[in-house]
Write a structure and sequence with these properties.
This is Zinc-binding alcohol dehydrogenase family protein. By secondary structure, this protein is of the alpha/beta class. The chain is 31% helix and 23% strand. The protein has two domains: 141 residues, Medium-chain alcohol dehydrogenases, catalytic domain (Quinone Oxidoreductase, Chain A, domain 1); 144 residues, NAD(P)-binding Rossmann-like Domain (Rossmann fold, 3-Layer(aba) Sandwich). The structure holds NADP nicotinamide-adenine-dinucleotide phosphate.
Length: 317
């Protein structure tokens, strides 16, 4: 079969022949139909992600750990965790029986690869207990996940949406998607802190962490004695840094509540969120910006830096 083959940690996968996987008794062979290439896949292949040792424990290897495929009977499924060194970026892969879920009817495989990213924004409801009419700040709104969060916040009935990013051109695009106001996080610290304070937010969906969120937490500290309505912050991503410093007074006096996106998630809730996102997708209320490329273009596609909030989706065959 053809596959994207990684020969060295930190290298770029190449389109090459690779031995076909053979399914064991507890495994199933899948024809791969679509795979989203995300930053996490690149970090794993670069050896800089904590999961690198797990997913790239032998070379050569095929990157990407999830995707959409067809079972031998043709049923389309979302799958995860191929048996190493097989990965998702190939014509075929092999997974444990049960390591897949049938796709909702009517969703095309490329779009299906991005539904999980949209679901992260549903943590607005599950983790933060959002109620319609509240102000939502999407921290890191110019990426794929952030742009989807702006759309989802609108669909859930946000009263006002504030979007942040570090590039004015992209922030204009995010405004066109439905944000009511935008903030550029590349402003100097004091200016940014003032902008956050003026923007206000009931709930923050945070895809950045690092410096921008450190300043945001500072901005929540009341400047005079008051009983502020605490902001709820949902931590989802870390594009701007894996760590930050929180001054004790930020928590003490603002009453800010910080949740992980997984708060209140269980299998039944995930099903419910999935069904909602699928319904919006099928009705056309939720749209996805994808760049579809054939597997044969993987080497160039892997190195693209012009995606601007569009998800790269590799479509084998
Ligand atoms: N993909 C998922 O399904 C998923 C699910 C849950 C969580 N997450 C996490 O959410 C985060 C965003 O994911 P994504 O898929 O949206 O990625 P993405 O499309 O690559 O977007 C990354 C975003 O982060 C911004 N950014 C990168 N470095 C920055 C920095 N130093 N300072 C400020 N902004 C910075 C980028 O700004 P520019 O556009 O200006 O470069 C872009 O808006 C990641 O941490 C990811 O692991 C992703």
């Amino acid at each position: 079969m053809k596959a994207a083959v990684l020969h060295e940690i930190g290298g770029v996968p190449r389109y090459e022949d690779f031995p076909d996987p053979v399914a064991g008794d507890d495994e199933v062979l899948l024809d791969v139909r679509a795979v989203a290439v995300e930053n996490v896949d690149k970090l794993i292949a670069a050896g800089t992600h904590y999961a690198s040792r797990h997913y790239v424990d032998q070379l050569p290897a095929i990157p990407a750990f999830d995707g959409i495929g067809a079972l031998p009977d043709g049923t389309l499924v979302g799958f995860g965790n191929p048996r190493r060194p097989y990965g998702a970026l190939a014509e075929k892969t092999v997974v444990a029986k049960g390591a897949y879920m049938p796709l909702a009817d009517g969703i095309d495989p490329a779009t299906a690869t991005v539904l999980g990213t949209a679901i992260t924004a549903m943590s607005l409801k599950t983790a933060a207990g959002f109620v319609p009419g509240e102000t939502v700040l999407v921290q890191g709104a110019t990426g794929v996940a952030g742009r989807l969060a702006v759309r989802v916040a609108r669909l859930l009935g946000a009263g006002r949406i504030v979007a942040t990013g570090r590039d004015d051109d992209q922030l204009r695009e995010v405004r066109a998607l439905g944000a009511d106001a935008v903030l550029n996080t590349s402003a100097p610290d004091e200016e940014l802190e003032r902008a956050y304070r003026e923007a206000g937010a009931d709930v923050v969906l945070d895809y950045l962490w690092g410096r921008p969120t450190e300043i945001l937490l500072r901005a929540l500290v009341p400047r005079s004695f008051a009983f502020p309505k605490p902001t709820r912050l949902v931590q989802i991503g870390e594009s701007a840094g894996a760590a930050l410093t929180v001054a004790a007074e930020s928590l003490r006096t603002s009453g800010v509540e910080i949740y992980g996106a997984a708060r209140r998630l269980d299998a039944a809730t995930m099903q419910e969120l999935y069904r909602q996102v699928v319904a919006w997708t099928l009705s056309g209320e939720l749209t996805f910006d994808l760049v579809r490329v054939p597997l044969s273009d993987i080497e160039t596609a892997w190195q693209r830096t012009d995606l601007r909030g569009r998800r790269l989706v590799v479509v084998p065959g």
